[in-house]
Amino acid sequence: MKHINRRSAMSAAVIALASIGLAGCNRTPDTIKIGVAQPLSGGLASLGKDLANGVQLAITELNKEGFKLNGKVVTLEMVAMDDKANPEEGVKVAQQLVDAGVIAVVGHLNSGVSIPAAPIYAAKGIAQLAISSNPKFTQLGHTTALRLVANDELQARAVGSFAGSQISGTKFAVIDDGTPYGKGLADAAAEKLKGKKTIALRQSFDDKTKDFAALAAKLKAEGIEVVVSTLNDFQVVALIDDLVKIDYNKQITILGTDTLKTTDMIKETGKVGAFYATSIVLEASEFAGGRKFLDAYQATFKIPPAYGGHYTYDATYILAAAIKRANSADPAKVSEVLRKMDGFAPVTGSMKWDDKGEQRYGVVSVYKVNGGRWESIIRSDNWQ
After folding, report:
1. pLDDT tens digits for 311-336?
2. What pTM was estimated for this model as a whole?
3. Taking CA 309 as the corner, what is the angle to CA 37 and CA 358, rounded to the nearest 5 degrees?
């Protein structure tokens, strides 16, 4: 009878188990989860759902094509959660997405949510692809924080430049929603307007306020001609209603920012003297690949896009390319590849990040409603 050395047998068993473990770690999964964290309820729900729709549309197309990793067909799955545009809820959602095993997260809309959520994703090496524009998002030092659009430093310069040279009137009011995005951008815009216009009124609210009767009265009493606003669209609608009540709506020009440039605001055309919006989110129709996206979006969701779904659509395609290039479903490896990529984006053309996570191809446009849609009247990546 042949005797087997007990120690040798145990060593062989350990090696075999280790090999199985390594194979399990490197195994190509059947499903890869992509997280989405956006406001899916409340006043910003239409914007958040639009951003989620962009991800879902891209995933549907990629799955239909047969997305492959290591030669194996893998199903991409969206895991969407409602951050309610609330910082505390956003932190909870971020942890839930990490626990769900997502490879990356497309989120969040609000800077005030993206910023506190960022360390949670970073701790696990999970890329955070955000449309948030407050500069602090990429100043936290997290290599996983990647912005999809220009930041508010450029947008503040656009507000100051356009309002200072293209809008008549000298008495201005600057109002904001009290969030890191809104207050930060309004403060920067007010600074850019110094020496160009008289800021007769500067006031902050919160992002839930809908009663602007007192503000409307102040605007009339001060003889304000132009309102620079970072309020949400539903808040500006409420402000316009209060201005109408005191017959001081046609005397006012409103210059808003991203959260004003929505489909809902188009309905308000003609209720004030004029309104414009600066935006880091360009219309899909402005890009060569926009028509195909718009047709697919309408066919899938039976509504037109409300905000920036084409950016999250592109981000999902860039993410899919990064997964293939990394040849891995490991979040940290994918995040590392993403940061160095200059990837093809079906609608906007390309996405590439600098060493801070800022979008290299970010621009800011100024829009005005024309013919029932937002139309760009000027845009630049170098506003002064």
Report:
1. 999 999 999 999 999 999 999 999 99
2. 0.86
3. 75
